Input
Amino acid sequence: MFKIFISIFLLFTSLSFAMTKDEIKIEMTNKIDKVLIILKDSNLSKDQKGEEIISIMDNVFDYNLMSRLSLGNKWKEISIDQKKEFITLFTKKLKDSYIEKLDLYTDELVKIVGIEQTKKTRIKLKTQLVGKDATHDIFYKFYKMRNEDNWLIYDVDVIGVSIIQAYRKQFSGFLNDKSFNELLVHLKNPNKK
Output
């Protein structure tokens, strides 16, 4: 499962660079090709690879929306300052998680299959992770920004598992018996018991 996560290029952003609907397939193909070149570069350290890859893919994800979706209804209950802090910490968690898994990359290929418009304001870009032993479907989920033909990624679905839904379940379970401030502390110090 971890090999899949590394190869889906779960890269996220704090600054958004929206694409038009017609640009999605071309732009994502170019970005994924650049990422594969970096992953194969044995002259770069894991941290260098992570930084370079994040700089390539960083601007097509909407962290604000991803953060809000990962908290579900709890988002409405927290203050503006708590929202800002959560976005910062959640973004860092996603990037750190990605960089930790870079060592698991083992020459898989990523193939862009096509685009499916699921709703007027939703698109799925279907890709496939092609390894020696298996092929796995990965969907990048885009939404259309209001009043514009600009699209950003708000979730990634890996072999039927939504990254945002997985975090929402995790955060919901944590918040069943702990406060939101305790969740913020946990995100700041995830290894502390």
Notes: The helical segments are 2-7, 24-39, 46-57, 63-71, 74-77, 80-100, 163-175, 180-188. The two ends are 25 Å apart (CA to CA).
